[in-house]
Every structure is written in structure tokens, then in C-alpha cells.
Amino acid sequence: xxxxxxxxxxxxxxxxxxxxxxxxxxxxxxxxxxxxxxxxxxxxxxxxxxxxxxxxxxxxxxxxxxxxxxxxxxxxxxxxxxxxxxxxxxxxxxxxxxxxxxxxxxxxxxxxxxxxxxxxxxxxxxxxxxxxxxxxxxxxxxxxxxxxxxxxxxxxxxxxxxxxxxxxxxxxxxxxxxxxxxxxxxxxxxxxxxxxxxxxxxxxxxxxxxxxxxxxxxxxxxxxxxxxxxxxxxxxxxxxxxxxxxxxxxxxxxxxxxxxxxxxxxxxxxxxxxxxxxxxxxxxxxxxxxxxxxxxxxxxxxxxxxxxxxxxxxxxxxxxxxxxxxxxxxxxxxxxxxxxxxxxxxxxxxxxxxxxxxxxxxxxxxxxxxxxxxxxxxxxxxxxxxxxxxxxxxxxxxxxxxxxxxxxxxxxxxxxxxxxxxxxxxxxxxxxxxx
Length: 435
What we know:
Blueprint: H1 2-22, E1 24-25, H2 27-37, H3 39-60, E2 65-75, E3 79-81, E4 86-88, E5 92-106, H4 110-177, H5 182-217, E6 226-227, H6 241-251, H7 254-273, E7 279-291, H8 298-304, E8 307-315, H9 323-389, H10 395-430
Helix pairs in contact: 2-4, 3-4, 4-5, 4-7, 4-10, 6-9, 6-10, 7-9, 9-10
């Protein structure tokens, strides 16, 4: 039984290890990991928290100010003892205690408008953060697809190099026997060196793309692991530019965030204009003091010297160096700036949606043409290879046909992944990017 248990545990451990080794990160997993761990996004989230604190403070400004003061001091020489209202020359210790409250009654509705402005700013911050999440998603998707592209291009270049290496191996045998043109032999060797260099360049590109995705996910490159391949379906529905633009306005948080910024700017004008109004506040306080120069005790002095006060304070602005006047003008300029920012964003969105539609259609058309081109070059290379191996051709014709086929295969790979990226971008603007 012990042996069975040990073998069972070893088997389960081996399965767990194998599953861990075979696990591939999907694009959805990468997106969610980036949302949780990306430090730039977490830093931007602090703006939402700041907006929430600002709103809470604006609401708390409706509460009264309450402050207390306690003091104790020692004196010597001649001085006026305020507790007994007499001059004395003895050493003395004295102190006092006071507490006061100030309640805003009216200040031109400044607090009300400030609360509403901070609430609008908080909504804008939330939507801006959602927009930053979407931008991060697109960055992760782009980096993810670039890695898959680099991986497949690397595999393709390795396969192409294997074909060249086999031809070089065959040519070496013929070269030793003097049965091949030396120029053809060295052409093939030069092509092999070129293919090997292409492999090294593709490895470098793959590594750089993996570094970029690792940085977005906040993980080490060696811990990124393998990525799950994406399915290529070129039959996606394509919207018109105007349809995609309208969907983006309706679904994306960018435009509503700008609307809330405009509302906040409008509220700010009212906040500043409240400075034109008189302000009224209610104050109340208690105070007492004591001195060792008095003839009665500490607690009795506190009771006997207790004073109470209540007051209404009216502050009327008459002239303040045009401060309020200029602040209102600046607030109006801030409002105009917010409106222009929305117009600029809409113009940019119009361009980006139109570009997304065009790029998706263009990629689809290019894929069809490249597929036909690859078929033609495949047959052309087959014919050139047969003639070259039969000694009826030369290396120039053979390598020309091979390079055309290699180039068309890589172009097709790149264009298919480009189509996938453009599809994700279109889904983003359509509000259907479910990652």
C-alpha cells in the first residue's frame, strides 16, 4: 500500500509538472494580468482615488470648524495678571482654555457648487481610467500578436534555411566530384549564410517583442512562458467608417469622460463667481483662565472666569485687486479648453476609426492576393528546383525562385497577423473587445 501511494503521488506530481510546462498564456490571460499588475495603470488609478478624496473633502466643508486651545505659562517681574486684573511683581504661573466653532451659513453657494464640481470630476476620472485600461489592452494585444508573428516568421525562416542547407550539402558532394559549376556552389553557400543571418535577426526581434509584453505584464521575460496561438478567421463582418465611429462614441469611455470634464469646468465658473457674494458665518466659543495669584483654587477659577460668546460674521467683498474677476475669466478659458479637447478627440477618433476600417479591408484583400502569389511561386520554385537538380539551370534562377517563394510566405504570415491586429482594433472601437 505504501508503494502504491508513493507511485501515485509521483505520478500526480509528474502530471502537474507536465501541465505546468505545457500551459500557454492566452491573450485574455495576458490582458487580465496586465490590468492587475501593470505599474503605470496602477499609478493612473491613484487619480481616481484623489478625485474621490477631493469629493469627500468638498462635502466635509459643509461641517463646522471646531478648535480648542490650551495654554500654560510662567512669568516673573511686573506684569498685568489678567485673571485678577491687577499688576503684580511676584513669580506667577497662569493658563487658559478655549474652544470655538465656526459654522458657514452662506457663502454664495460656493460649497454646493464645489461639491457638484468635484462629483463631475470624479466621474470623469473613472471614465478616463477605463479609457487607460482600454489603451493597455490594445498595447498587450499588439505585443502579443507581434510575438506570435515573430515566432512564426522565425519558424518559417528556419524551414527555409533547412531547404538551403540541404541544397548546400548536395552541392558540396557535387563540388568535390567537379560535377557542379563552382559559381553555383558558392552562390548556395552565400545564400545559406544569408538565411542563417535572417534567423538570428528574427530571434532578436522575437526577444524584443517578448520583452515589451513582459514589461506590460510586469513579469520577467523568462517567466512569460509560451503564448497560445490565435485562430485566424478572415470572414469577419466589416463596418463602415461612419458606423464604427458612431459605435466608438457610444461604447468607449473617452467621449463621456470629456463631457464630464466640460461639466466640471462649468461648475468651476460658478464656484469662482461665488466670490462676488457676501459670506455669512456663525461663531460660538467658550473660554476661561486661571492664575496662582488669585485667592481661590484652580477649578473655582475656571468656573468663575468662564466666558461664552456667539457672533454672526458678515464679510462683504468690495475690492480685492480684481482677483475674482480674473479668476472667472480664467475659469471660462478652462471651459473653452475642455470643449476644444473634446473636438480634437472626436476628430482624432474619426480618423482612427476610418483608418481601422480601411486597414482591415486592405489586409483582407492583401491576404487573398498573397495566397494566390504563394501558390504561383510554390509551383515556380518546384519547377526551378527540378531543373537545377537536373543540371539544366543555374543557381541564379534557382535562388531567385526560392527567394520569391520565401518572401511571399513571410509576407502572407505577417499580413495574416496584421489582419488579426486590425480586427481587434475594430472590435475595440465597436465596444465588443471582450477581454
